[in-house]
Each structure stands twice: as C-alpha cells, then as structure tokens.
Fold this sequence. Notes:
GO molecular function: endonuclease activity
Signal peptide: 1-34
Number of domains: 1
Protein name: Endonuclease
Number of strands: 11
Region (Disordered): 168-187
Keywords: Endonuclease, Hydrolase, Nuclease, Signal
Amino acid sequence: MHVTRPNRTALRKPLTLLIGVAALATSLTGTAGAAQAPAPAQSVTTAAAVTAYDDTYYSPAIGKTGAALKASLNDIISKQTKISYSAVWDALKKTDEDPNNSSNVILLYTGRSQSKADNGGNVGDWNREHVWAKSHGDFGTTTGPGTDIHHLRPADVQVNSIRGNKDFDNGGSAVSGAPGNYTDSDSFEPRNAVKGDVARMILYMAVRYEGEDGWPDLEPNNNVNNGTNPYMGRLSVLKQWHQQDPPDAFEQRRNQVIYDTYQHNRNPFIDHPEWVASIWG
C-alpha cells in the first residue's frame, strides 16, 4: 500500500507556490517585479539566451498552446543525433561533470561527486539510470529512447537498483545511503534538489516519443504501478516538483552540452518552464 507523508508535503506547499509564481514571472518578463526579490541567478535562463532560441530553434512553437504546442515541440526535438548505449558512458561524463571537479560526475539521487572512472556495476560504482524506466514501454537499451541522454543520468548502483522501474510519487521510507530520497513498493521520491530535473526529464520523453518513429507513445499519467505500459506517474506530483524545483545552472548547462555536442536537441521545459502548464494544465 502506498504511504504518503502529509506533514512533509504540507510544509512544502508554500515554498512550492512561491517558487512557481517567481519562475512564471521570470519566464514572462525576464526580470523579477519591483515588489519581489529577484530569483537566484543560477536558476534563471537569461533573456538573451531564450530570445535567441525562440527566434531560431523554437520559432515554430512560439505562440502555440496545449496540444498544438506539444505537437510542434515534438517536431522540433525529434530532429536529433542518436548515440549508442555504450557511448552513453562517455556522454554522461561530460553532461554531468562536477563543476567543481572535472574528474568527477554528480550522481542524480545521492548528489555525491564521484570519479568518472568509477562507472560500472559493482557496489559503490555509478551506472546509467533511465529516469523514464525502460520497462515502461519496453524499449530497453537499444538506440532510441533507451539511449536518449536527456533522461539518462549517473546514479549510485545500489540506489538505482532500489528505484528500479518504480513510478514517481511522494512518500515512503528513507532510502539508505541516499538522504532525502524515499521509496515504497510502488513509487520513488527523489531528493528536493532534483525533483524538478526528474519531472522535466519525464515530460521531455512524453513529448519526444509520440509513437511515430517505431517506438511506443510515452505519456505521463496520474497512476503508479504502470508496469510495462508506456506510462509514467504520478503526473500531478511531477507538476508540483517542476514548480518546486525550477531549472538551475547545472541542469541548464547539461541541456546545452547535449545540444552542442551529442544529440543536438533540447529539453524545452528547461528553456521554457511555463510550457509544462500550457500542455498539461
């Protein structure tokens, strides 16, 4: 049975609301209003950068909303260079490089900075975590959604195993060795600092893979226990996490490295956080 922690969630709601309002205001105006404190510099895409991509990469999507926006973004981000699963190892060493130590990567769930050379399958190593669980749609690790580095992240081997193919939701028991993460029989809750990252990766996959190129039509839903169906939940919680944890400098840099060096496509919800509400309400 799924267990939630209402007191924890309730305490987070004011912060979630404030961050969501600030993020939306920033995305619409480029600056904070005079009556409110400016958002932290590391969590704001500069107006110049957004304008540049709006005039070029995102130009077909600008001004659209809802299903039309989702379809336009699918057309845009489906134009990508695909890499092999073995090549993902080296890609993650660049995309998730520790900004304070170029010999290390930052692990998704633990936040631990670890040597790039410690990749593998042994206890204490890091491996390749499919944030959209590869069994949800049964796409495996073949080139396509199974190798799309917009949702592949370095993770501690044991924590990755604990997460398994569970959907995402609030609640559960603390994960040993990964403070701030919680899990139960049917869901996993990541630490606060990457809740938004997880949400935006799931929603990217839902837009990128629409069943038009031989892969399943991936969609978020409001369920857990989705099994091998091409769905990931819980959408209502993912939207909360997206508001609670807006894109930061690490996530923005990662998006840029993937675009410049590897796949040459972008996660639109990092560049335009307001598009989540436009598509999913």
